[in-house]
Structures are given as C-alpha cells and as structure tokens.
Design goal:
With 192 residues, the protein is mostly helical. The protein has a two-stranded antiparallel ribbon with strand order 1-2. 53% of the residues lie in helices and 3% in strands. The N and C termini lie far apart (49 Å).
C-alpha cells in the first residue's frame, strides 16, 4: 500500500464508524440532542460530511456543487447549521449528503498527489497554505474525534457500543459485569 492509500484508509474507517452508529436508530433518536450543547448523532455526521466538502473540495479548487447550509438566504455560520438536521432535512437527506460528500472527497484524494497544494481560508494566515497529506491527516484525526462522540452518544441512547466486528477492543462482558465495573469506578472516584 502507498502512503496515500494508508492515510486515506484512516479517513474511510472513521466514516464507516460514524455511519455504523446510525444503524437501527430512529429518525427522532438520530436527531435528539444528547448533551447540553445539543450534540446529536445526525448532526455530527452532517458536520463531517460538510467538513470533507470544504477540505477535500473547495480548498483544492474542486468544489462539489453541493450547497452549504450557511449559504442559504438568512443563514450564517453562527446558526450552527452543520451540527443538526433542520426540520426540512430527513435522516435520508443527511445520509445522502454524506455519501455524496465522501465520494467527492475520495475523488479529490484519488486525483491529486499528496504534495498537491491547497488553501484553507478559515485557518488564518499561518495555516492557510496546505498540502493534501496534511489535510488527510487533519480529517482522519478530526473525524476520529467525532466518531468517538458518536460512540458515546449511541451508548447513551441504547447501550450499543463498539463496531461489533472482529478486532473490537471492548471486552465481551455481560450487563452485570459492566454494572459492577461502573460501581467500582464510582467508588474509586468518590474516594478522592
């Protein structure tokens, strides 16, 4: 495998992890805020899809022709529109956006060399000029963070954890073991 294939593979793994977190989730639960800042499963996926459109599209002179929500009349970045599905967007719409954004991002990675130059206007003067390898690493790290958010959100929702495939590094234990484990952790914390 080439370095580009390895790096690109890490981004693809994070996408698959995020998409898997929506398997079997109802439309309402996918949208439901699970934190005090409104973080929700569908919004995290939407954010990552739009992030890939920007970083692996516009920043390398390869716009996808997919509208950003903040470009709509009366909207702004301050509306946090990339972190939730609006009343007019269905879960199917966000999944479709993600698949189209990821396909466009993949085409950019496949078309360009790792040292291809790009420009990230929102990074400020010192960080604006970038290379494809830098952006792929940035996305892999950022999307791993967001996949982790989705792990916790899904566990809060219905107890579903891990990717449920060979290589999961989550111990296979029954509910009683996990309940005892949590009690033990509370006792350790309370002793401090």
């Amino acid at each position: 495998m080439t370095t580009k294939e390895i790096l690109h593979g890490y981004v693809r793994e994070q996408r698959q992890a995020m998409l898997a977190k929506l398997d079997g989730v109802s439309e309402a639960d996918a949208r439901r805020p699970r934190t005090v800042t409104g973080t929700n499963l569908l919004g995290v996926l939407k954010h990552c899809a739009l992030m890939e459109l920007g970083y692996l599209g516009d920043c390398f002179g390869r716009p996808a022709g997919i509208a950003y929500p903040w470009d709509a009349p009366g909207a702004s970045l301050d509306d946090n529109l990339d972190f939730y599905a609006t009343a007019d967007e269905s879960m199917a719409d966000v999944l479709d956006l993600a698949h189209r954004a990821f396909a466009h991002a993949d085409a950019t990675v496949e078309a360009l060399d790792l040292d291809a130059r790009g420009f990230v206007p929102w990074w400020g003067p010192e960080g604006r000029e970038v290379t494809l390898d830098q952006i792929i690493v940035h996305l892999a790290v950022d999307e791993a963070r967001h996949a982790g958010h989705m792990d916790v959100l899904r566990e809060q929702l219905d107890g579903s954890v891990g990717l449920r495939r060979a290589g999961d590094n989550l111990p296979e234990q029954d509910e009683r073991w996990w309940a005892d484990y949590v009690v033990r952790l509370h006792a350790i914390a309370d002793a401090r």
